[in-house]
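Consider the following assembly input.
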Amino acid sequence: MEILVCVKRVPDTAENEIEVNRDGSDIERDDLVYSVNEWDNYAVEEAILIRDKVGGSVTVITVGDDESEEVLRREMAMGADNGLLLCDDAFEGSDGKGVASLLKAAVDKGKYDLILTGAQADGGAAQVGGMLAAMLDYPYASLVNKIEVDGDTLKVGREIEGGNQEMNAIQLPCVLSIQTGINEPRYVGIRGIRKVASVEIPQQGAADLGVDAASVGADGARVKRLDYFVPEMGEGAEMLEGSTEEIVAKLIELLKAKGGLK
Amino acid sequence: MADIYAYITHTAGVADDSALELVAAAKKIDANAAVTAIVIGSGADVDKVADAVAASYAKVLKFNLDALAYPNAEVVRKLLVNVLSADAIVLVSNDTFGMDLGPGLSIKLDSTFVADVVGIEGVDGTALKVIRQEYSGMVSTHVTADITNGAVINLRPGAFAPDESQSAGGSVEDRSGDAGDLTVKRTFLEVVEAEVGDVDITKSDVLVSVGRGIEDEENIEVAQELADAMGAVVSCSRPIVDAKWLEKSRQVGTSGQTVKPKVYLACGISGSFQHMGGIKGAPFIVAINKNVKAPIFQVADVGIEADILDFLPELTDAIKES
């Protein structure tokens, strides 16, 4: 099975506090630690597991700048066979539809049976996979937490409300968005990264993809972010201050009053 | 202004709470909007839902067909493309069904997709201005969307106060005959119910809930010891289940259990909306987190800035002594 996994380089929310910059035009990007989007890591692991079972190859693709190469390399160290970087100044500021149309152009130039994305990324939109499927006229399932290969059909589980799982049969080729917890992504050590350090990762721009530059990027975007801000959320929590002993004593008193302690 | 439609999610003959939230959101786009509800399914349940939502919507389009017995998003998308007007504004609840439906629907309608909206500021010409969140709710953004060709807008469940006026007095139109070809390449098989674990967290009045801040599987014991001392039960947020440190049945959130405790100790939990969506009944929430910027501090009653690995054992000891 030829599998394409769409990944993204994002600020690592486990390593950083995300704050708004002084004029609200962006998040504070100084000293940010970046990594591969958490959901994408599960998608790559799942692709590798499927390939190891039924054969084929795994290609990881991203839309980004030169620095995005590092996440492709990391996923190749995990076991992906190929990387592909879609990189062009004209792509900057693309909205979800712009990103999906770039990926669609790349899919049209390859031959893939299965396309995976993470269920969502840093923007929380959870949109690119579904858009890509619709552009390709492939069937789509989101929030997938189980995949079984059965000939040219997949049996996939979707995580729905209440921890229940909706099972579906879906025909290949298809697009699936992968939910965290579907597997346990393997650890990537320094040695693994070194092995792929000198692998050439091909880059493609608007001309290579045959994409009209005006239809993507900031010019083509129908959805635009105006600013970043932190909303006023009312009073918020009453913060308990003092020494640890004082805080513990206050908390025990409160817990007793609220029925948390007998 | 283009026609505004709302897709109604329903189970067992009852419309989801989002039905009243979508009509409230529609009024924020256009105060005078005559909003049309779309109810899709099979059997008497669909009739019941359609009649019920007619109180809140000016018009209800009903599609009652055997082929819609379990309408997956692929089928619904095809149906909506067959019946909606070209520049339609379609409101969808951003639940697991809406996430399946919305993005692809916008492509098929050649309209604009606006994801996971938490607030609507209004429309200026052809620009819809909304509020979204990024980075798991750590920051918010104002976003404009060009709705010249219509839009599919996914609205976060619970973000809009429901319109309970029930004053629309709408009519129900059975449009089943217009559904068109509904052949798709994905078929529903079954719903596998969540496994019941050793402990039922939904029955406990006091929950000691752990998140990423617990750092390591071995440290779960720190929370368990506190829970034992309090007579409470340990629950958790999603990352703990993803890491397989606790069973899925211990997870609080929209993709886990819905709990109604009296007291909720959120330990090292950032407080994503998916997690908070699983906490009902307005419990007394104590947040303990070393990151003062964590969204949990905005919804908690009491906050403590501390590393839970240091703080919880101190609390446990003090409770044992008292």
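The first helix of chain B runs from residue 18 to 29. Ask yourself how this observation constrains the way the partners meet.
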